[in-house]
Each structure stands twice: as structure tokens, then as C-alpha cells.
Amino acid sequence: MLRTDGFRCSPIDFCQYPLARFGGLDPSTPKLGFEKVKDLMDASEAVKKIFSLEFADDKEINAYRRAKLVKAVQKDATDQSSLPVSITLQTLNIRNAAKQLSLARKDMGAKQRLLGIIGRRRRTLKYLRQTDYERFERLLKELRITYVLPPAHVRYHTRRYLEKLVVRKKAREEKLKALREFLDDRKEKQLREIAILKKELGHELTKEDEDILARMKDDS
């Protein structure tokens, strides 16, 4: 396959659609690393065109797009591993993988890798949403992506599950009843010991102490 300028390209190249490969970028923009070259600024239009995105390959265009998006979400120039930067890189990887998968739909390995990246980005977005919601919203607008909340977990109550609930509830009530009886018995013993000790020491007995001693006589 030949391009309009005579160069040969593969079927997966975007040479048939010269504007689509830029994805909204200005083809006259200098390549990454040549933006502030003084000699290039003073060069002729032909030289500038050679060092522009119009003559860049897909790898150079992706690198420029990556640097542009990362710069838009960075806190500063040293920010290379924050959550927004990670999400931005994952988004670019998803778009590149989706483009390749659209050209080879039967590539199951590429499909699994794409699903893996999507899952990692979803988890990272969820964490960013929980920690910094304002930055999360700005990042969605910057990357032009949407975040769909996962559906709430719904468990269908089968007959067996309901029977288990009844058994568990009954067992819990029996345990609570036994614990309550144990605590009441221990409390009664402690009150008896206190009443007997007061009587032996000659301390004044309260009405409750007298009732406890009376019950002890009746039991005996």
C-alpha cells in the first residue's frame, strides 16, 4: 500500500486518513522535545514542517499526546506517580490497546490485556473518588471519560438461605439467654457475698441486703 507521498505503509497505519491519526492535535505543532529549539524557530517553513507532527510516526504522536495529557494533570514537573498521572497513563494505554484490538478482533491476548488495564483504572478511579472528589471530577473532564458506579450487590434469598437465617437467629437467641442467666447468677452470688460480709463486719445493711439474706434463709 502506497501513501500519497509515495512511501509504503502497512494496513494498520492511518495513512489513508491523514487527519484521523492526529486525534485533534495540530499537525504543525513541533515534535516532542523540539518546542523550544531556537534554531528551529528561526528555520524555514520546510524545516519546521519536517520537525512537526505532520511528519511524525505513530510512536512520536503518542508520545506527544501522552506528555501533553500528563502535563495537564500534574501538580508540578516532578509529579510522575500520583493517582491522576497513573489514571492518565492507563487511559492512554486503553485507547492505544483498543485501537489495536479494533484491527485484530480475534486477538484474545490483547483483549485480556485491555480488560486488565480497564480494571486497574477502575480501581484507581474509585480510590481517587474516595480520597479527593474535586480532583476526581477535574480529571474526568480533562480526560473526557466517565465513571459509572458499580451496582449494589444484590443477593437473592433462596429457601435454603432463609432457613439458615432462622437457625442462626435461634442459636443466637439461645446463646444470649444462656449468657444472661449466667450473668444474673453471678451477680446474685456477688450480692450475697457482699451482704454476708457487711453483716459479719457489723456494717449497716440496706433493704436490698436484708432481702438477699431473707431469700438465703428461705432457700436453706
What can be said about this structure in brief?
One of its GO terms (biological process) is mitochondrial translation. By secondary structure, this protein is an all-alpha fold. Helix content is 63%, strand content 0%.
Characterise the protein shown here:
This protein is mostly helical and 220 residues long. Helices cover 63% and strands 0% of the residues. The chain has 8 helices and no strands. The chain is elongated, with a radius of gyration of 38 Å. It starts with 37 loop residues before the first helix and ends with a helix. Its main location: mitochondrion. This is Small ribosomal subunit protein uS15m. GO terms for molecular function: RNA binding; structural constituent of ribosome. Belongs to the universal ribosomal protein uS15 family.
Q: Can you tag this structure with a few keywords?
A:
about 220 residues, mainly alpha, disordered N terminus, single chain
Overall 3D geometry?
Answer: elongated
| Helix-strand category | mainly alpha
Largest sheet: none
Q: What share of residues is helical?
A: 55-70%
Percent of residues in β-strands: under 5%
Our measurement of the CA-to-CA distance between the termini, rounded to an integer number of angstroms, reads 110 Å
Contiguous uncertain segments of 5+ residues: 1-17
Q: How many beta strands in the DSSP annotation?
A: 0
Give the topology:
Blueprint: H1 38-41, H2 45-50, H3 58-73, H4 83-103, H5 108-131, H6 133-143, H7 159-201, H8 207-219
GO molecular function, one term: structural constituent of ribosome
Pfam family, one: Ribosomal_S15
Protein name: Small ribosomal subunit protein uS15m
